[in-house]
Write a structure and sequence with these properties.
Rossmann fold; globular; alpha+beta; nine-stranded mixed β-sheet; Dihydrodipicolinate Reductase, domain 2
Length: 265
């Protein structure tokens, strides 16, 4: 079963299909609530069914390159990741822009770093007056074996153009990735800061390299992966747990907006 319906309907539909013994592909977000997302994780496990979530960026060749480069230490210690997923478009009416757009990069950063953020801070605005966010900035603090990484996700419906840009800054290498591009998505910069005595640092701009990723349609790749999981019973790359994790982060962001404080996961 493939569920591509308003977010509020994801839980009852997915639960019905899983309970009936069906494998399910559901578009993101898995659900809008932590409790419902966790419930679907548990139902899928109990019934032995495949539940794959439409976190499409996990299937982009550029993501594979970035994840491997981070894991291999090519970036050194990753200090900063910044993402802007937005641009002028019709707003979705079933959720705010964080759940409609920002969730792509929240899940992507979880995947790239292999971790969940320890704390979440967010601000947003409701310019349309609909009772849901249409501009949002989410700040994520990760703690991995390599140290702390600060990540930010900006999403909106207003800025002219279409933005799907991620910037990864490490102490050995940095990269700019434009997910709008079809093939030449990543450009790396061997920029470094070196101590120069006291509080002084020297900024050295290094070689710039264009990374060629094999052209591949992520939508086709994720659907092929779903079919593959159905056949092999292998856990999907974008499994139900990843969907639940992304929902947890965004609900922490909504709580942060209400309280004005960082929320610890």
């Amino acid at each position: 079963m493939v569920v591509v319906t308003p977010a509020q309907t994801h839980f009852p539909l997915c639960k019905e299909f899983l309970e009936a013994g069906k494998d399910v592909f559901v578009e993101k977000p898995l659900t809008l609530s932590n409790e419902e997302s966790k419930g679907l994780v548990e139902v899928a496990a109990r019934k032995g069914r495949i539940l794959q979530v439409g976190h499409i960026l996990r299937f982009d060749p550029a993501t594979r390159w970035l994840r491997d480069a981070i894991a291999n230490g090519d970036f050194g210690k990753v200090n900063l990741i910044r993402g802007h997923f937005g641009g002028f478009k019709r707003p979705r009416n079933d959720s705010g822009v964080m759940f409609a757009a920002g969730i792509h990069f929240v899940d992507l950063f979880n995947y790239l770093l292999g971790a969940l953020p320890k704390s979440v801070t967010a601000i947003h605005h409701d310019f349309f007056g609909r009772g849901m966010d249409d501009v949002a900035l989410v700040s994520l603090e990760y703690e991995t074996q390599h140290g702390k990484t600060w990540a930010t996700v900006e999403s909106d419906y207003f800025i002219p153009g279409k933005f799907r840009e991620v910037i990864v800054c490490g102490d050995k290498l940095s990269a700019v990735c434009d997910y709008n591009s079809s093939q030449y998505k990543i450009k790396t910069y061997a920029n470094t800061h070196t101590p120069a005595g006291g509080n002084d640092f020297k900024a050295t701009e290094g070689a710039v390299t264009q990374i060629e990723c094999p052209p591949e349609e992520p939508l086709l790749a994720e659907l092929r992966a779903f079919i593959g999981s159905i056949k092999t019973r292998a856990t999907p790359r974008a499994d139900a747990q990843s969907g639940y994790d992304a929902v947890r982060v965004l609900n922490a962001a909504l709580e942060s907006v209400k309280t004005g404080k960082a929320v610890t996961l």
